[in-house]
From TrEMBL, chain A:
<dbReference type="GO" id="GO:0005886">
    <property type="term" value="C:plasma membrane"/>
</dbReference>
<dbReference type="InterPro" id="IPR039428">
    <property type="entry name" value="NUOK/Mnh_C1-like"/>
</dbReference>
<feature type="transmembrane region" description="Helical">
    <location>
        <begin position="24"/>
        <end position="42"/>
    </location>
</feature>
<comment type="similarity">
    <text>Belongs to the CPA3 antiporters (TC 2.A.63) subunit C family.</text>
</comment>
<keyword id="KW-0812">Transmembrane</keyword>
<keyword id="KW-1003">Cell membrane</keyword>
<feature type="transmembrane region" description="Helical">
    <location>
        <begin position="70"/>
        <end position="91"/>
    </location>
</feature>
<dbReference type="Pfam" id="PF00420">
    <property type="entry name" value="Oxidored_q2"/>
</dbReference>
<feature type="compositionally biased region" description="Basic and acidic residues">
    <location>
        <begin position="104"/>
        <end position="115"/>
    </location>
</feature>
UniProtKB/TrEMBL annotation, chain B:
<dbReference type="InterPro" id="IPR003918">
    <property type="entry name" value="NADH_UbQ_OxRdtase"/>
</dbReference>
<dbReference type="InterPro" id="IPR001750">
    <property type="entry name" value="ND/Mrp_TM"/>
</dbReference>
<comment type="similarity">
    <text>Belongs to the CPA3 antiporters (TC 2.A.63) subunit D family.</text>
</comment>
<feature type="transmembrane region" description="Helical">
    <location>
        <begin position="73"/>
        <end position="98"/>
    </location>
</feature>
<dbReference type="Pfam" id="PF00361">
    <property type="entry name" value="Proton_antipo_M"/>
</dbReference>
<feature type="transmembrane region" description="Helical">
    <location>
        <begin position="269"/>
        <end position="291"/>
    </location>
</feature>
<feature type="domain" description="NADH:quinone oxidoreductase/Mrp antiporter transmembrane">
    <location>
        <begin position="127"/>
        <end position="417"/>
    </location>
</feature>
<feature type="transmembrane region" description="Helical">
    <location>
        <begin position="204"/>
        <end position="227"/>
    </location>
</feature>
<protein>
    <submittedName>
        <fullName>Monovalent cation/H+ antiporter subunit D family protein</fullName>
    </submittedName>
</protein>
Length: 115, 504
């Protein structure tokens, strides 16, 4: 239950931040979102078994499921890579980091064109 | 024996990309690799298609661990056909990119090869989490390719488009990831073969899989969530739009087909949702297209509309419906790339794709004009070309499944498709050749004299022509591809042979 509550709080925070105006808050929202999802995946392995899977001859009744741990380990590095790229994108381009661009798309590209 | 060769589809491009990044700077070697590696992938895939006309699916457990523990890679007729067409499109778009100049960027070829490896992996894998990983492998080099431009300095709008593209894809991938987490929590496995039919037995698994399918639907740009594609795709360079048009959304479509066929076992209870959403996609996509004013944004909205057609095949879930959907998928990837390449060639040389800014291109560039016209008629579904076969078989399949509403939508949408294709034709190709502004290297606009000299070189025009010839060939000789699609559809309708191959 504690895990579910934490995931809920994280994802609610993420949803709020993703809808904010400046880009850095959006990135923080994505960080919260991937934290929430990673916790959800960890809890999918069952949260009642808490022993680490690092001993020889683990007792399957008490050892945590290692597969979701590998999933999360992979997901962390992927989210990390994309977050770095997003941060670089936030400082490239326009000099401020606001997200309220009305002119995404090819039309803005050719604003200087003859009518 | 053949099964253990399957990982080569992923290994060869990955090693090639790594080697090219590390050891060589030679533009000639990079250009050769950008053509040769995807070509090798295509040839390998054609070999598999030939194999599957007589044999059943093959599978390989990576690392040779037992079934259920290893990550399985499997191939049957459906993904062999997908591999063939995606490989072919990669070759043609790499050719076009080299002709436009963006191919000479230092990391173009390595990123292209990683993209190819990601696509091949996502098509071959039979494991949900591995699908997520390969989708990311496919997306990350795409983010790099998105900002490449011939002038080495991307315009600001391109960065704005890329921000939208990355943000949307990160959100969607995270949604896919949590769906996979739920599947693991409810079903205890993420191996698609072990999940066979699980969504029909257990509503919890069905909800978890629905989250995954929803995430894939966003990636495929169906109607409630399509705006990102129409805004992001036109803001990159023409060669990259053409490349992405055949790969990303189509991999998502492949995954939707495969997952609904295997995990949901084609459960007829939920098909109405598909029919409803995909019909709405056809209508809204095409309405967006007639309202646009540049060639590439029209084509991007058309893509949304055509994705509705393709996915309708899985919403019918009959032998005829799946055959038509798969045929439509393969036909559409080729035609859409051809359209993006022909209009892209004009955009590269004339500096604009705005309707009305150009005229009389047909007289000046007859080759491009013919390629565009053929592909446009094929997209609208006019008899000699492959689009006619695709639409006709989809309409027959819908009538057979008694989805009369969808039939009416398909016919009406075809008319609007033709209308907007004629809008491009009359706005860009028809009329008297006029003087037009041209963008020089640094973006300085200079007025040039009206002339009838060709400006699109043969090298730049040929990629679009080659794909236009293929769609004509598929229209005249549709029997072959229909037969192959039929085998692929049979594999989806009854996935037991596929599952058995993975499980052994």
């Amino acid at each position: 239950m504690m895990l579910a509550l934490t995931v809920g709080v994280l994802i609610a925070g993420a949803a709020f931040l993703l809808l904010q105006q400046d880009r850095f808050r959006v990135i923080l929202g994505f960080i919260l979102l991937s934290h929430g999802v990673n916790l959800a995946i960890i809890s999918s392995g069952g949260s009642d078994r808490r022993d680490e899977a690092l001993v020889s001859g683990p007792d399957i009744a008490t050892t945590a499921d290692p597969l979701p741990q590998a999933f999360v380990l992979t997901a962390i590095v992927i989210a990390f890579a994309i977050t770095i790229y997003l941060i670089v994108l936030a400082v490239t381009g326009d000099d401020d980091d606001t997200t309220t661009e009305s002119h995404v798309g090819p039309d803005a590209d050719r604003a200087e064109e003859a009518p | 024996m053949t099964a253990s060769l399957i990982p080569l589809f992923i290994i060869v491009p990955l090693i090639g990309a790594g080697l090219l990044t590390m050891i060589s700077n030679s533009p000639r070697l990079h250009a050769a690799a950008a053509i040769a590696v995807p070509l090798a992938s295509t040839i390998g895939a054609v070999g598999m298609v030939w194999l599957f006309t007589s044999e059943g699916p093959v599978a390989h457990g990576v690392g040779l661990w037992p079934f259920g523990i290893s990550i399985p890679l499997a191939a049957d007729m459906f993904n062999a056909l997908m591999l063939t067409v995606t490989g072919l499109l990669t070759v043609v778009c790499a050719w076009f990119a080299l002709a436009t100049g963006i191919g000479s960027s230092r990391f173009f070829t390595p990123m292209l090869l990683v993209l190819l490896a990601g696509v091949n992996g996502a098509l071959l894998t039979v494991d949900l989490f591995n699908l997520f990983v390969f989708v990311e492998v496919m997306l990350l080099p795409s983010y790099g390719l998105f900002v490449l431009s011939a002038q080495r300095e991307a315009p600001l709008t391109r960065i704005a488009g890329l921000r939208l593209y990355v943000t949307l894809n990160l959100l969607t991938s995270t949604l896919l990831l949590i769906g996979i987490g739920f599947v693991y929590g409810t079903a205890g496995t993420v191996n698609v073969a072990q999940l066979a039919g699980a969504a029909t037995d257990d509503p919890l698994v069905a909800i978890s899989m629905a989250v995954c399918l929803f995430a894939l639907s966003i990636k495929a740009a169906i109607v409630p969530v399509y705006g990102w594609l129409a805004r992001a795709y036109p803001s990159t360079s023409p060669a990259i739009t053409a490349l992405f048009s055949g790969l990303h959304t189509k991999v998502a479509i492949y995954a939707i087909y495969r997952l609904y066929a295997v995990v949901f076992d084609g459960d007829a209870r939920w098909l109405w949702i598909g029919v409803l959403l995909f019909s709405a996609t056809m209508i809204i996509g095409v309405l967006g297209a007639v309202g646009e004013s540049t060639t590439r944004s029209i084509l991007a909205f058309h893509m949304v509309s055509q994705i509705g057609y393709i996915l309708l095949g899985v919403a019918l879930f009959t032998q005829a419906g799946l055959t038509a959907g798969i045929f439509y998928l393969l036909h559409h990837m080729i035609v859409k790339a051809s359209l993006f390449l022909s209009t892209g060639a004009i955009e590269v040389r004339y500096g604009t794709g705005r309707i009305g800014a150009l005229s009389g291109i047909a007289r000046r560039e007859p080759l491009i004009a013919v390629a565009f016209f053929v592909a446009a008629l094929s997209l609208a579904g006019i008899p000699p070309f492959s689009g006619f076969v695709a639409k006709l078989s989809l309409i027959f399949a819908s009538v057979e499944a008694e989805q009369i509403g969808a039939v009416i939508v398909m016919v009406a949408v075809s008319l609007i498709t033709l209308l907007s294709m004629l809008k491009i034709w009359s706005g860009v190709f028809w009329g008297k050749p006029s003087s037009s502004e041209t963008q020089g290297g640094g973006g300085t606009a200079t007025l040039v004299e009206a002339d009838t000299r060709r400006r699109v070189s043969l090298n730049l025009a040929m990629p679009a022509v080659v794909l236009a010839l293929i769609t004509t060939g598929l229209g005249l000789g549709a029997e072959l591809l229909l037969h192959l699609s039929d085998i692929a559809a049979a594999g989806l309708l009854d996935p037991s042979a596929f599952i058995a191959a993975v499980a052994s």
